[in-house]
Amino acid sequence: xxxxxxxxxxxxxxxxxxxxxxxxxxxxxxxxxxxxxxxxxxxxxxxxxxxxxxxxxxxxxxxxxxxxxxxxxxxxxxxxxxxxxxxxxxxxxxxxxxxxxxxxxxxxxxxxxxxxxxxxxxxxxxxxxxxxxxxxxxxxxxxxxxxxxxxxxxxxxxxxxxxxxxxxxxxxxxxxxxxxxxxxxxxxxxxxxxxxxxxxxxxxxxxxxxxxxxxxxxxxxxxxxxxxxxxxxxxxxxxxxxxxxxxxxxxxxxxxxxxxxxxx
Length: 264
Prior knowledge:
- This protein has 264 residues and is an alpha/beta fold.
- Helix content is 36%, strand content 23%.
- It has a domain at 2-81 and 167-263: P-loop containing nucleotide triphosphate hydrolases (Rossmann fold, 3-Layer(aba) Sandwich), CATH 3.40.50.
- It contains 10 helices and 10 strands.
- The chain starts with a strand and ends with a helix.
């Protein structure tokens, strides 16, 4: 469903400020696979996600979604097949529009827009059913402006919008980092539920080692723009933070230095 092949990405190439972010990175994900992506600051996690999303063009290599080469497609043209949730709960929704209006925008993603605007009774019932499953009481507040919601409610709504029309690939860029621990846990539970129910191919960037181990069926660890660990199946289920730190040291030759990840 997703193939990132021999991708290289650098910023400010040919200058004194040149920064090599990705070095010949290859990742292949099967349909329904849930990959957590972790690494220190500057490891290349978010850059990889942004190359898949089309935010950054690649210097070399290819990106395929469902066997279609999207390497040269701009971000807005990939949006029809990709769902994305950002770190900032304020992104991904229209603050001055109601909950049901935001859901209607997501539901019409990829369709041609005409002059006719309106939410049918059938659509409204669909949105209500989906909101009920979040267990946040939003189904009774569908006309409220999204800007009045809490960060956790807004992020849960953004998740629902990203998955309302099943995307080929779901990209989650530290989508719980700005939330308090209790709210972050609830949003992660909702994430797992939506991914499993819809069999979504998902890549989740996280700074939290415990979350990277707990969620998903595959863990990829990056270091200095390269993949240094790729763990899945039963091996991942048995993994501990201590195991992960030890294995990182073995393959990288140095200690994992990221206070944010270690303190989580």
